[in-house]
Amino acid sequence: MKSAMMPQPYRVTARREETADTVTLDLAPLAAPLPPYAPGQFTMVYAFGVGEVPISISGGENGVITHTVRSVGAVTRAVCAARVGDTLGLRGPFGAGWGVPAPFGADLVLVAGGIGLAPLRPVLDHALRERDRYRHVLLLIGARTPGDLLYSSDHAAWARAGADVRVTVDRADRSWTGRVGLVTALFDELWLDPGRTTAYVCGPELMMRFTADALRARGIPEPAIRVSLERNMRCGVGWCGHCQLGPLLLCRDGPVVGYDHAAPLLTVKEL
Amino acid sequence: MAALLTSLDSLVAALRADRRQVIGPTVRDGAIVLAELDSARQLPYGWGVRVAPGGYRLRERADRAAFGHSAGPQSWKAYLHPPRTELWSTRRGESPAEPDEPPPRYAFLGVRPCDLRAIGVLDRVLGQGKYPSVRYAARRAATFIVAVNCTEPGEACFCVSAGGGPKAAAGYDLVLTELIGADTVRYVVEAGSEKGERLLSTLDTYPADAATAEASAAVDAAAGRMGRALPPGDLRALIAEKRDAAHWDDVASRCLSCANCTMVCPTCFCTTVEDTTDLTGEVAGRWQRWDSCFDPDFSYLHGGAVRTSTRSRYRQWLSHKVGTWHDQFGEAGCVGCGRCVAWCPVGIDLTAELAALASEETAS
Amino acid sequence: MMAPRDLLAEHPFLAGLEPRWLDNLAEHAHPVYRNRQHRLFAVGGSARHFWLIRSGLVVLDIHAPGRGDVVVESIGAGAVLGWSWLFSPYRWSFGAVVVEAIQAIEFEAAPVRRLMAVDPGLSAELTGRFMRVVVERLQATRVRLLDLYGFPTGAKP
User: In terms of domain of life, where is this protein from (chain B) (predicted)?
Assistant: First the structure.
């Protein structure tokens, strides 16, 4: 039996610079591909000699895995610096995903903050592929500045494919003519049907808390609000103990959990 | 079927003849440590220990008991889940390879019932999850366990209140009960597996007869001599309710965040990884080593640690041990061996801390 | 075209308001349509109106020398625009300009203030509803002050 700790070699087949510090890589297997992933799962990405980081899967078909990576530390810097043709190691896919598909006829509300759009992208792709399955597909995106928006060249295509895409930024520049404000302010424009809505929320932890609280205040039941949590992950397979959040081992029980599980934990300081 | 041994010499010799590395207790550096034994003569005959919160001393016994002592500074996890292991190595551009080494053929001699439970706890964390550790499972499968029922609980022991007891439950190949006479020791031995049966059948033994009842009585009596006890009640619920208790600050004012408790704990399994490269930069390796939730970096999350205060780190450790371990693995992570009590440099006693938390609840 | 009173009743800001108060308010409200780039008010101007936005988008801005008109927040469908009319000296602290053509209900501030003065029940109700909006926007502003996305956000890459 192959150990879950052994990375598989993947070659970078495409590289797109999303923002000043964020890169999207398409990775194709050089040896055996990893098992198929579910939206919301992550892999452990190994940069040769530098180390390993957990990265959510942003897409990919036929064995290819797409990762959108923000350069925030030594390992992500090395991953972001990978060129087409370079090799990275992947393990996974690990963790509990978003839980798509949602029930037939549901309204999907995807709320993304910053880099949090990356793990939601497979949910969006699924919803647009099976657009008839759902009533409304709403994508609410919050970013720091217009220059920090991910996949901005795809937004129009998503709208054409049937998503209601709304974008807001914390700080506008002179070119920006869209919304300015917190992503939760977008809820004021919408009439959400609490009985039909499944919400998928991803972004910085505080952003997710404010967003989930705002959704709850609009009557959406906590289990229907899915959030993707984050703690230090070293092994991805439940052995190393680092990613504990109270009762949860996030690499195994998460990273996606219902807000009914998350809410009581996120307000405990230093849990 | 119980049998009687008047010495362990033949047992150790038989295990070694079976090409096993026998690991057992022996006296070294003023403590009873675990080490490889060449013969049963290296067992700590005639030595006991005196244990207190933050204290551990050898004492001479009036008899020749080999297992008349409670848990020492080490536990068996050092052999099943070593402090530092190479996970794999690779050349740039190649698939990584795991070290190609067969698991050691250990025979653990003198595994106390608390530690036997601890091995079971590790099995469920490392060996039986969705992604079992192949390395751990291989080591575990290759290990022969000679348990010893406990007739001598120490001052820091509380296995009974932790859901165990001085009698070894399942998981051993052989189990001994030491019968201590004025100047002799005898051992009632029973097999717990086919492997154990086979080994036992190669030894010259005597019929156990009345010794079996004597052994049972000695073990039963031990249950009543625990030095400590966890507070009664549902500790898992207590922990979940007491995340904001003031008492965590009280512990934090004493705790040095030194990580001793996690190192001596027989179930603490947390690890981190180290990435290495050679000087050419062409060969990289990955090592796993023990980590501790008391290390500030343990909870590091791009930019800073989540648990910066000692309060939160002690809370994490104790909460995991007796509370959230249930959520994660379906049982408690504490077996009541008392090591963390003895080896805490400032004598923090988890049984007392839990009692204080419980009483704070009553007060509020 | 819907009567002002019906438009009021269906706007989230006034949801569930007592019918008699809707009648009172409707007397001082009328529907408006404003095109892109129409300035609803400017910094320092007299606060004579407020609006319930039904569709479109308005941004609040302020002119900063060297930076031009800096947008601080946008106000979209379903929201209320303008609260400076509630408090003396009734002057706007920020400006407001339409960026996506709006349909809105425009209120005359002075008569609404007079209604509130003679009807403490209505006053409490409206003040409470504005208070809620103020609190939400204050909290959203505080969250934006945290510059959440400016920090590394991590394992989701």
Answer: Bacteria
